[in-house]
Automatic annotation (TrEMBL), chain A:
Highest taxon, organism lineage: Bacteria
Organism: Sphingomonas mollis
Sequence intervals crossing the membrane: none
UniProt biased composition (Basic and acidic residues): 1-11
Pfam family, one: Polyketide_cyc2
Annotated region described as Disordered, given as residue ranges: 1-33
Name of the protein this chain belongs to: SRPBCC family protein
UniProtKB/TrEMBL annotation, chain B:
Keyword Cell cycle in record: no
Domain named Alcohol dehydrogenase-like N-terminal: residues: 25-153
Keyword Zinc in annotation: yes
Location of the Alcohol dehydrogenase-like C-terminal domain: 197-265
Reported cofactor(s): Zn(2+)
Protein name: Glutathione-dependent formaldehyde dehydrogenase
Coiled coil feature spans: none
Pfam family, one: ADH_N
Amino acid sequence: MSDDPIVHGDDAPPSSWKKGDAPDAMGIGDTKGDSIVGRTVTINRPVGEVFAYFRDFTNLPTFMENVVSIEVLDEARSHWVVKAPAGRTVEWDARITDEAQDRFIAWTSEPGADVANSGRVDFQDAGARGTVVTATILYDPPGGIVGKIVAKMFQREPAIQARRDLRRFKQLMETGEIATSAYTARQLEEETN
Amino acid sequence: MRALAWHGRHDVRVDTVDDPEILNPRDCIIKVTSTAICGSDLHLYDGYIPTMKAGDILGHEFMGEVVETGPKSTLQKGQRVVVPFTIACGSCYHCGKHQYSACDNGNPADNQDIGMELYGQPMSGLFGYSHLTGGYAGGQAEYVRVPFSDVGPIVIPDGVDDDTVLFLSDILPTGWMAAENADIEPGDTVAVWGCGPVGLFAVQSAFLMGAARVIAIDHFPKRLELAKKFGAETINYEESAVYEALMTMTGGIGPDAVIDSVGLEAHGFFVDNVIDQIKKSTFLGTDRIHSIRQAIVACRKGGRVSMPAVYGGIVDKFPLGAFMEKGLTLKTGQTHVQHYMPALLNAIMEGKIDTTFLISHRMDLEDAPKGYKMFHDDQNEVTKIVLKPGFN
């Protein structure tokens, strides 16, 4: 990540770079997409537990609000159905390009994806503080820059969603539940739809 | 159920709304027996706190009987509990350090965006206090859904009156933490701005922590009378110049520690306060801060500043130079209620702390709008209103 000596003499992560080619520096390998999202959260649980929960992709819709379903096709491949603005959904097959237990998972979308994307989630043992989880996502917004603005208006934009999803992941791992301020089941349903 | 809902500036109504339900495993539902109107509810009433929505149920000082429990609640039906106003999970890093109001998980994920934008990191959820702090329905209602009921509510022994323990929910721990944040040393002189409930509990707490003298500052004669009862000397800022009085009363040194328990809506017709007012009405600044300014200037060199008062936004004309040059220390924050409740319950049971003196009015929940107006219009006569569903 530090092999960009011309532009970057600091230790700041690529997702915070103001200049330079961040996607190339992120170690994703087979990159797809230009818009970059980097989010980090510290979860007060051991890295083994956090990684194991995440690696079972069928768990992800529990805290990823926009993910309708994930079907695991084989060890490396999974099929994703995700909510998009205006009641639509987008789909793609994701393929794990590289992974190391309790350290990271990197993926890329297969050809034919509605939204081409790639990224990696890093898990770092933080001792008494638990586990630092960093999600870095590259994607091509459908409809280009206009599509990105529309997605933001509907709060279906990956930058917003990744931050909220990581918080929900943290809540679930730390407290066993996802916090809600609803006070009736009907309100809760309206909130999550 | 019936509940007191906010509909706009100076517009609160008792509405009929849906009963709360258990939604998460650690939840419980309580049937409210007593709930108070807090001075900080007046900030909502006056429209100073952003992110309020019409229909939001207010109230963060409440207690009641457990009527329903989720599978992971440790409470039992029929138990009487006082509920902390801060919603904390008990499992995150901050809860582990007993910094409950900084809980990572008490605020729902979507609501944390606002706190992140405003403050850099989101704070915990609070009951009945805008969407910035989670948008949770509050306790000025017949029933409340209480999240994380295995770590928050404290069980009250049978035979103990509501009125003696209700204030464990907020203002007693807040006054106690205010005094604790002043790092009082035996023999100290402590000055307290604002003799509302928090200020009055700070006065009591300061003496319990070894202060030799406490000087209480306000302009409501009745409130100063209450401070006097606990042994404080008083300054009425409408009758006397505060800085001059404090310097003379402390032999030209200044108080060793100062506590600002006034906050957002500092009254006082001083030039800088009037400028603050104008800026507030033109949206140039959100907080009016005369009391903290005066406290910093009066505080002795090397002294301590404690600020339990609620501030929400960005201020200017903060005397940063005086603060730096005199080498002061400032401690503040929303109260870590869960941390203080057990010891303070004991202090109440042992008769070391009295809280009932505060209550000036008791009324039915149905009369809550009248209560808000009374509290807002007459803070001399009204020191604390306790609402009791079914009181009439």
